Amino acid sequence: MPMTKGLRDRFEKFTGKTPPDVTGSRYAASKAMAVARAWEFASPVGEVVELARDVLEAEGVPAGQHAVYYAFVQKVRKAMFSHRWTTLSKIVSGLKSYFVQLGADPALLDKLSKLMVGG
After folding, report:
1. Which of 36, 44, 77, 99 has minimal Cβ neighbours within 10 Å of its Cβ?
2. pTM exceeds 0.85, yes or no
3. Is residue 30 assigned to a domain?
4. pLDDT tens, position by position, 32-82
5. 103 to 1, 17, 58, 76, 84: CA distances (angstroms)
6. 54 within some domain
7. DSSP letters along the chain, please?
8. In a domain? residue 2
9. Which residues contact 67 (CB under 8 A, 6 or more apart)?
10. How far is it, in rounded angstroms, from Cα 101 to Cα 103?
């Protein structure tokens, strides 16, 4: 079964790639703030992937077919940061059509989008 990166993996990779002795004293002074920001901004990505994983596993989707659904929820999450109401629902509708063409199940896309956006 393929392993996907979770929030903890992303966070550990960020902290591992940024040792203060290599990046300098300026970064060492601001590392606490940078780590907090990395955690804050990585959280929505990790949350939507975990949400999708729970739904897909409950529906019995094989792990090898999860990637298209992860891509869908990440695109919807990105749209949610910038758009609301009618505009967001039109964007999600367009994304559903696109991902159905890529082979995703429309019923699962509906379920995932309703969990994220509602309605």
Report:
1. 36
2. no
3. yes
4. 887 887 777 777 777 888 888 889 899 999 888 898 999 999 899 888 878
5. 20, 36, 19, 17, 27
6. yes
7. ------HHHHHHHHHHT--HHHH-HHHHHHHHHHHHHHHHHHHHHHHHHHHHHHHHHHHT--GGG-HHHHHHHHHHHHHHHH--HHHHHHHHHHHHHHHHHTT--HHHHHHHHHHHH--
8. no
9. none
10. 5
